[in-house]
Amino acid sequence: MLQDILNLFATETRDETLSTDDVRLALAALMIRIARSDGDFAASERAVILTAMTERYGLTGTDLEELVAEAETLEGKAPDTVRFTRVLKEHVPYEERTALLTTLWSVVLADGERDAEENSLLRMLAQLLGVTDKDSALARQSAEKTA
User: Fold this and answer.
1) What is the DSSP string of the chain?
2) Contact call for residues 71 and 81 (beta carbons, < 8 A)
3) Using alpha carbons only, how large is the chain's radius of gyration in Å?
């Protein structure tokens, strides 16, 4: 099944019937990639990811844990980040992508540290998600206010 998901993300032509589960999985994997980017997947970062998935998709309990576990495996096997951002950019409206960027910044800020690797990754993600520099800065500022 994991190989099927990896194949889905690697496909150049997209099926317009992409399920909500695929979008959720792409977002969770992207958040995990961000959390791991500084070499330390802190408990506070995991808590932000769990909270974000609960608030955005209403996931709780076993459903939430299974999705995050699947996303951790997927993130570990995915050779690049584009496969995750592509799914989000193609299937999430712009306004929601800016909100996603705020959530991604919240993952970065969760451990109280913001290093150069995380900053660089978030700048790249904003571009890949098609979010303007201005909206990206506003998303970061919003995340900083709630951190």
Assistant:
1) -HHHHHHHHH-SSPPTT--HHHHHHHHHHHHHHHHHTTS---HHHHHHHHHHHHHHH---HHHHHHHHHHHHHHHHH-S-SHHHHHHHHHHS-HHHHHHHHHHHHHHHHTTS---HHHHHHHHHHHHHTT--HHHHHHHHHHHHHH-
2) no
3) 14
Cα→Cα distances 32→6, 17, 39, 87, 134, Å: 16, 25, 11, 16, 25
The dihedrals phi and psi of 17, each to the nearest 5 degrees, come to -95, 25
User: Are the CB atoms for 86 and 22 separated by under 8 Å?
Assistant: no
Closest CA to 104 of 70, 73, 127: 127
Tell me the percentage of the chain whose pLDDT exceeds 70: 86
* CA terminus-to-terminus distance, the chain: 36
Whole-model pTM: value is: 0.84
User: pLDDT for 108-137, tens place per residue?
Assistant: 999 998 888 888 999 999 999 999 999 999
Lowest mean pLDDT among 9-13, 93-97, 134-138: 9-13
